[in-house]
Specification:
Rossmann fold; four-stranded antiparallel β-sheet; alpha/beta; 11 helices; 2 domains; Alpha-Beta Plaits; P-loop_NTPase; nucleotide-binding; ABC_transporter-like_ATP-bd
Length: 301
């Protein structure tokens, strides 16, 4: 079976600017993939090339093995939310979906089902100009799902959602993946990506830095081992003599051994009858790993 999404050697040039440079990654069915990169990394350009909105300069971007423009049933294959969706301000949410549904050969019954699914049933008669940003995001999701597609491409779907809405979105996307759908999500909200995604793709300056499962990525970039207790001074001396990288932690007398895991440090403790009160791994957040991989500081894009 073809990959849900397959990007191979994708490049896109705008005049003298190379926005995407030989980018490759894939998305499998049943997986949520977080698509991450700093501002200007080329994420939106990549998504637009994938959805046939711009022509790539080189390489390929396919959905279920075909370019978007060659899909026989686009609405039934892929649904997308880019730029928060486009809505006529004088049209109700229900009529917005009905207009799109008729263009795609989808029944009004499906519209009602989706309004219920994204919790807009009671607001379906309201004009979209009165919708909050979070409501517009949910309406965009409903539009993306009209054709019951197997692949979803979402650009910043958590924008404008309150904490309850973000929790709803997380559960919503997990349910879609559990049905076997593939979900590619570009997001600024790294803490939420860490709770939602199965895999991450990180790009920088238009090029791929890595594609990895999220647990594997965090394990590979673990922050070392923290040790506390009355004998940590002696332990630090022994570890340094053994070539380990040791530093003080937080001014509380504990130490962090950045290049040894708990088993390795534990063996040193046992061999030298050292008394400790705490031995624990130091976890890094997805945000920490993102900054480390991209060499950036501050908020990612």
């Amino acid at each position: 079976m073809a990959q849900a999404i397959d990007v191979q050697g994708l490049s896109k040039r705008f005049g003298d600017k190379l926005a995407v440079d030989d980018l490759s990654f894939s998305v499998e069915f049943g997986r949520i993939v977080g698509f991450l990169g700093p501002n200007g990394a080329g994420k939106t350009t990549t998504l637009r090339a994938l959805l046939g909105l711009i022509a790539p300069t080189g390489g390929t971007a396919t959905i279920v093995g075909q370019p978007f423009t060659s899909l026989s049933d686009p609405a039934g294959t892929v649904g997308a939310v880019l730029d928060g969706g486009m809505f006529h301000p004088g049209r109700s949410g229900r009529n917005h979906l009905r207009t799109l549904a008729r263009a795609s050969g989808v029944s009004d019954a499906r519209v009602e089902e989706l309004l219920e699914l994204v919790q807009l049933k009671q607001d379906g008669r309201r004009r979209t100009k009165g919708y909050s940003l979070g409501m517009r995001q949910r309406l965009g999701l409903a539009a993306a799902l009209l054709g019951d597609p197997r692949v979803l491409v979402l650009d910043e779907p958590a924008n404008g959602l309150d904490p309850q809405g973000i929790r709803w979105l997380r559960d919503f996307l997990r349910a879609l993946a559990a049905e076997g759908r593939a979900v590619l999500v570009s997001s600024h909200v790294l803490a939420e990506v860490a709770q939602t995604a199965d895999d991450v793709v990180v790009i920088h300056r238009g090029r791929s830095i890595l594609q990895s499962s999220l647990p594997e990525l965090l394990a590979q970039h673990a922050g070392g081992t923290r040790v506390a207790g009355p004998d940590v001074g002696r332990l630090a001396e022994l570890l340094r003599a053994d070539g380990a990288a040791v530093r003080a932690a937080d001014g509380d007398g504990s130490i962090v051994v950045s290049d040894r895991d708990g088993v390795q440090v534990g063996r040193m403790i046992a061999a030298n009858a050292i008394v400790i009160s705490e031995l624990a791994p130091v976890a890094q957040s997805l945000e920490d790993v993102f900054f480390e991989l991209t060499g950036t500081q501050g908020g990612p894009a």
